[in-house]
Protein 1
Amino acid sequence: MRAHETTHHVQFVPGSEFKRRAAEVVANPFLKKSFRGAMDFLMMKRAAQFPDPELLERQRDLAEHIRRYSLARLPELLEQLEVNLKKNGVQVHWAETPDEANAIILDICRRHDAKLMVKGKSMVSEEVELNHAMEAAGIDALESDMGEYIVQLAGEKPSHIIMPAIHKTKQQIAELFAEKVPGVSYTEDVDALIQIGRDVLRKKFMEAEVGLSGVNFAVAETGTICLVENEGNGRMCTTVPDVHIAITGIEKVVEKLEHVVPLYGLLTRSATGQAITTYFNVITGPRKPGEKDGPKEMHLVLVDNGRTQAFADEQLRQTLQCIRCGACMNHCPVYTRIGGHAYGTTYPGPIGKIVSPHMMGLGATHVLPGASTLCGACGEVCPVKIPIPDLLIRLREEATHEAKPGHAPMFGQGAGKTAFASFAFKGFAFLYSRPALYRLFTWAATRFRFLTPANQAGWTKSRTPLTPAKKSLRDLLAERSKH
Amino acid sequence: MSARENIFRKLRAATTAPLPSPDAAIAAHYASLPRTAQADLARVQLAKDFAEKITAWHAEVHIVPRSTWVDKLKEVVAAKGIASLLYAPATTHGKALAAAGVAGLKPYDQPIDGWKRELFENVDAAITGTRGAIAETGTMIVWPDADEPRLMSLVPPIHIALVDADTVVPTLYDAITQQKWSAGLPTNALLITGPSKTADIQQTLAYGAHGPKELIVLLLTGEDAQ
Amino acid sequence: MDRHYPAGPRPTDVYFFATCLVDLFCPEAGMDAIQLLEREGIRVHFPADQTCCGQPAYTSGYADQARAVARVQLDLFPNDWPVIVPSGSCGGMIRHHYPKLFADDVALKAKAEALSGRVFELTEFFVKVLKVNWKGSGNSKKVALHTSCSARREMGTHLHARELLAQLGNVELLNHSHESECCGFGGTFAVRQPDISASMAGDKADALKETGAEKFVSADGGCLMNIDGTLEKRRDSFRGEHLASFLWHNTERAGEKE
């Protein structure tokens, strides 16, 4: 398979399209049932890993401490990481934007005259749209994680950060393989389907000049990157090709290996309800003289892409504590109903709503922070205790207001401001901060309840109209005191 | 200004209140776990826990006396129909294998670049040592080096690993601190917990995604531990 | 969520903060809550100038407007009496978000914090402070319980409501599937994302009905209006009742005569 023949560039869905896409999914009973089933399964598996709520709370406190400490020392840890990586023979690159990251990677590929890049799972590579940049330059960028491979074959984007193909049934995958993989006939047998993927991809691991991976944790003290996976494709990508390029966000660094241990333990348990993954791949440099395998060259690309904006503000900085487990989406009643694609962002679900505005700007994403009931399920399961609902409220504020004096405006600051909402909340404040006026309002609303509109915007789409009671509570209390 | 300078300038411009190191809290946390309290128990118990856990992760475990593991290996090779067994000739266990004349031995004695295809297509199994194991999760610590390279535990469809029962520690934290990993990591250290697997198709578990389809552990014990 | 409850004698006086939803849309529930408190021998004070906790503006990102509304409520409770709120989400607003809302003003922040410490959700107050001893009256009943998300995650209300219902003896609480899941109200969310909200409300209504309960109870007016409005639009006769009303009509103090 040649990736550029079978895949096409999937555009991010603009924020204005969110509502329409969400409505489409919600109206599809088949999709709704399959998301619900998958999320129920993942929630159950996670719960089984944390039978003791007090122990879980201690673990979350510890993980939060580690992440906050790491971020508090971010500049110095990044410097230390760079020094130690270089000492270990790793070449370090810095990119502020997706374009810069892609240019760095493309340049490395060109120096090696690469035709094929095999990719381990990397959400940052999705974030910078690396595959598209490689295709445009005539280099095949082939996803090798089974879920990512399936999604790429279908010309789609991942719908979940841990389980990219969670929106697809085995029947759909069987059809896809039969159609797209030469010499394969239709089978719904999952083992057989995995073997098909294995056979295709093993040949590619041998051929590829470059392997690309993400990073789960970067360790400053030792100049090490750690990768978490079950399949072994990550190991293939980081070990078999002559060149290994790792790409990561600048927030992934921790000080010491010991700091990784509690985070890793919570990551896998929160993500898929596994106590540990099959592989924990700890890489501290390319092949040394005398070694018989491993890449001859290794690179780490550290990407900003809006992370420094989040970092600049102590509240928004908490966004960067994320270790990308996906538990927030598994537990989100909104994600459960609309799946990952409707969001139109690389990272869907609650974490996507708080991280995407920094990457893509509030102009493209201002609808997302509002598309939450603030039910708090995400914050409750977050292994590093990111107060996601508080951050959603904060972003709603930034999306609808100018920057406060003395504060740098966010990318897309105020993009969600509407005259109607501003007017409505000014009216709300005017009415409800004047008790006498409020009393007059309730008096009128109860006496003239027959004037209540039958059509109340979105509310009456699926509900009967909200109608004031005949008598307000204060009327009832006044009547009672007369008796 | 370069991207690097811009990123550091922005990061340094942010006000950042210092936080205490989490080191003590991490140490206290692992000290408080019941698993760590078992460190004083007979090592046999840790080894038993490890064996149980890794079996649950779909590995095949054989508990064998240190003196006779080669015989067990021969049995495994015969039972699995392994025609080509990759091994590391310069290691102690590699020398023992060669001396015992195990059938189908193939030494990993050349850089991979000259025989990549052969490794991918014509090797049935590989046998490696381990640096230790973790009881809590049923995990092996694999520490590849120039003699026993990293692809051995990845490419062949069957991975056979030797784990000495005396090297099992309670947790990953114990392994990292007791073995002083930070003082000298290999280019590629690995934790391996079972054969390669995936649940990417409809959450259905399937083994042998990209790496070994089978993991066979020979857990080496003293004679009396049988 | 862990909260220290004062020991010592039962309070003799409390303030009642009805919330704007109860005042205008389900006043009977407010009345029943007041009568339940009075049945415990407590004098209930209703500050006439109360309006709304400010939550709709706060959660929509209009902090200044929320502050303007919240500022009025801060002055309503001069005596050091408990403030009882018949809604977990409004109680959570005052308890958890008022101190943040006034973080920039030392005097107001101190006032908000003092208020935060004596705000109680109604069922929390019955169980944790009054430690009531009630029994059920009338026929045996089967009910389901829905707890609002902020009540559950900010106030632990689901546990208090369960404890109260468990005391009654003649009331069987039936659990519904996905009990901890949001009903899709979310304040302005229901209007801004009507399709997602409708899907959530529909699922919640189904789950509650599928228990076979004769009705469901909830201590939050917003959730009640959302789920009941959904059921009514479907022309389904299954309905919810505010927990305060249910308790007023179906309990008596244990050991008392009718």
Protein 2
Amino acid sequence: MFALDTLTHRLKRGCETMAYPDGPPPALPDRHGGALRVDGARCTDGCGACIEVCPTDAITRPANQPIALDLGRCIFCHACISACGPAAITPTGDHRMAVRRREDLVLGAAGGEQLRLAAALDEKLRKLFGRSLRLRQVSAGGCNACEADTNVLGTIGWDLGRFGIQFVASPRHADGLLITGPVSRNMELALRKTWDAVPAPKIVIAVGACAIAGGPFVGRPEVRDGADAIVPVDLYIPGCPPHPLTILDGLLRLLGRLETGDRAPTPR
Amino acid sequence: MSSETSFALLANATSLPWAALPEWPAAEFVRATAAELDRGARLCAWFGVPGDAGTHLVAIIAFDADNTLAAARSAPFAGHYPSLTATHPQAHLFEREVWEQHGLVPDGHPWLKPVRRTDAAGTAPANGEFFRVDGREIHEVAVGPVHAGIIEPGHFRFQCAGEEVLHLEIALGYQHRGAETGLAGGPHRATLSQIETVAGDTTIGHATAYASVLEALAGTEAPLRAQWLRALALELERLANHTGDLGALANDVAFLPTSAACGKIRGDFLNLTALLCGNRFGRGLVRPGGCHHDLEPARATTMLERLRVAVADTEQAAGWLWDAASVRARFENTGPVFAPQATALGLVGPPARACGLVRDVRYDHPAGWYRLAQAPVAVWPGGDVYARARVRWLELQRSGQFLLEQLATPPDGPIFEALPAPACPEPVSRAPDTLAVALVEGWRGEICHVALTDSAGKFRRYKITDPSFHNWTGLALALRGQAISDFPLCNKSFNLSYCGHDL
């Protein structure tokens, strides 16, 4: 008797949607590490150990300056953390990583050791999208990991619908695009057409290292090294892939539903 | 039978010198390969190796019943050769790929067109002409590349008479990132992370194949405990994806209890992989020479406890699915592929096993930990959506049981040993002019990686065959004679990789 079984099951389990953002966020896995902190001041003279091990060339060191780590290019493999003697690069365990401006992802300079988190949309857009945001998802060379961890926000544990955010089946129904993948050349036309088909005003969210900067495929002639080569991006969410909590944090931050820097309850 | 073959034999996850491969003129090479396939061998990979005097064709075949692989090559040539596809359809996509990459023309190929090449404008794949059915009542339906959900892109072209699909042609290539071509001259610094994202939902599968290839080239293998960890991670990957698939299938027939439950349980399995290595998809766990993270006793205990709960939850959610007559009515006889078709097309993984074919790398060509511990092969007859769902359910149960048993009896020892450097012109840990092959049974089926090194031990050619490359045509066949409204259901029952195909 599946009807009875399923009802009993549901009653027994109760509500399985997490309390966040009204309650505390779920913990990241202990080996995840979260966002990175880069203390360029700790770099020893002439050292470039982290630069040599980075698979995506996310770290640079201009002459006589401390290192700069581009969290947009970073795939969080932690090779640099292991290679760094003076502990200039350290995991913070913080799931919050989304930023509004590309340059805000570059860490290392004095005062810029940690991320400056995304500011909300301006008041006009917030009024339009704050309580109802419809997104069209475009995978443009994505490996199905960013896609999967975006999809998971729709499951009962996360229940994205409670924030008025929904993924829709047509660009005509959308307020913006959520893009994953490095933008393969073979998806360039399809991405442009989808963008053109979304009515203005519209926003773009780039999810994952690929969509921000090309990820593991950065520099390959077959890809365009990220979404902002094709369309203007309003929110960057780093990770490979970003944890679902990081994506959710970015979306809510953009809509002004989280206070900057703290965890004030979301107005319902 | 492998005992009569003129091909060079090798076991899974081993290597042999390039010079040891028998070489024939192209026409004879195609005839020899056809003869082996007629004797029951299966085509794992077929690719070109360019050189100064032309391009070699290379065939990697599997004698499943004999638990052995075999390899051979053609003499270098340019221009035309007699198509293998004309007599053995399982070669059809391989021959298109070789034509696209090296310009070798298979005479007699019935449908020679691009696989993933970019068009003249440089912003979309060159799809070529689509097959068309003529008639006043016939209409054409075009879907994609961008799809209605959060899914990868691909284009589907249906020829329909009313609701009935007469023919489906699948045009891919939108996800092409140069994942394979970029490996020539490697390995590079980015290679491992590129391999991990060949198909991002199969990170462990592809990374294990890659690590095995490098270990074979170094003439060594990973420590036992690392092999154990890889097997755990591979089965966790299978559990997560199969659970997600059962949920997606339930969703497509509007059976929401299982759909809702499986969506959550899938995450529970992904979180177990994250418990092991910090990443829900297993990024950064497997590397050549072993593994990067260990499962200490306390962590293993946590994993065992959480695994028990997740496995029990899956059992309950799947139970509702099988109990519901409405689900059975929608699954049964929908999207059938028949066993002779599956054999002819060379299907692998759950779609092949759902046609009753006993075909599983873990059983046929065991490597790594699977030489020491095995789960029974999950087979179901019928070839329809129901059979493909049933195979997934059997594998969920068996992988769950496998993990519970393996977690209770961990081997001791290190988890990583740097690859030794054999005598080479350069101090690299890869033998020169050597071919290595590794098969891994990923959750979608057989993953095949082949590396050929040059005289310096660098990759002269690296060939990746994702199981989806074998199986996409199976989906096209499954749609014949079906209602077009059943496409989403049939598609979910295969759940193939776009990026794994497009590379």
